[in-house]
Amino acid sequence: MITSSLQTSVAVFALIILHVSTLDTFKAAVYEHAVILPNDTETPVSPDEALFLMNKNIDILEKAIKQAAEQGAQIIVTPEDALYGWKFTRETIFPYLENIPDPQVNWIPCQEPHRFGHTPVQARLSCLAKNNSIYVVANMGDKKPCNSHNTTCPSNGHYQYNTNVVYDAKGKLVARYHKYHLYREIQFDVPEKPELVTFNTTFGKFGIFTCFDILFHDPAVTLVKDSHVDTILFPTAWMNVLPFMTAIEFHSAWAMGMRVNLLAANTHNVSLKMTGSGIYAPHSPKVYHHDMETESGKILFAEVDSHPRNSSTYPPAMNWSAYATSITPFPGPKNSFRGFISRDEFNFTKLSESAGNLTVCQKELCCHLSYRMLAKEGDEVYVLGAFAGLHGRRRREYWQVCTMLKCRSTDLTTCGQPVETALTRFEMFSLSGTFGTEYVFPEVLLTKIKLAPEKFES
Q: Is 363 designated active site?
């Protein structure tokens, strides 16, 4: 069930005393970075040219890291692809890669920069963490030599991985994660299996994965369910897609659905609709940023519970299917119709009155809506929609979606097309569905791409 009231705002915080050696809360920072991109080329640049570009981007990240430390942050997350961008082949990415060892080697690159070969990027990131006494999360490329006689070994004799690294406040490498679910990343290889990467601090247990990984059970759900992390670190290069997949919308919903902190740092590129970073707690967003107007980066700060499960604001587990199946389906509407959101065919029914109860179903999924409008604009049309099936062009992921949304115009064929603004105000609504999974992500996106700032229960 999703219930929402957009009239009141209540925030309650509690500090739980755990141990003398631990912190009840910590200050987090995420930085949305406008990446300095390389020139398009079909031939690899020299290692020196690659390092020059990466250092230009790290120069910018350095300012953010220092600012975070000065503001008292214990950790800062920077985006995916922040050092060099995303448009590469296997050959053209190679000069940007370094050998990143397993953290078990107990290595502070700032103190031993040549221990694992030529690693200037790792050394600089390590020094930024050490010199500013702050955990630094960054994304870069890892290369691992392989036996060319092995049939799985690429022709250049190296596996290449999209990789997150974490350095602690002393500059020590404490985590390395290889992205498993690649999105049109022909320059990188898929690891043999999803990695479940965690590390402990005095301010909670952390897990980490990257961008597209968040849409899959492994590693994202498994990391939270089995490893019992408090906070997920999430570098991303996320392209926003309305109505369901804008960064701030889905990432805040994921944190709520999984009942875990999420520190999300996105790249910033307006032409590719890349924006949307935030610090999200299980019960509500702490702070977020969505900017399609400027080309500037942005740093965000928030105080976060180190162990949210011990907080008085920690939301209870919600059995969505049990709630929805307890509802007797509302009388079937006479104005149901089909329409598409992207490539997914929904069953829709129009909200014809200013208040009411509606049910719409597709296959095994039934969606129930109760609503009451405060002021309905005459030229705005809203619908309730249901979808259950294989999603998108790939047809690899099975989605179940219940949605209430505004149509682009009064023409019902526009229902499901992207819309950024709305004028109708809802006094309340309650939306639920007979989902076949316990992992449900409740999204509420308001006009002009804003998250619900007031009371929102799931």
A: no
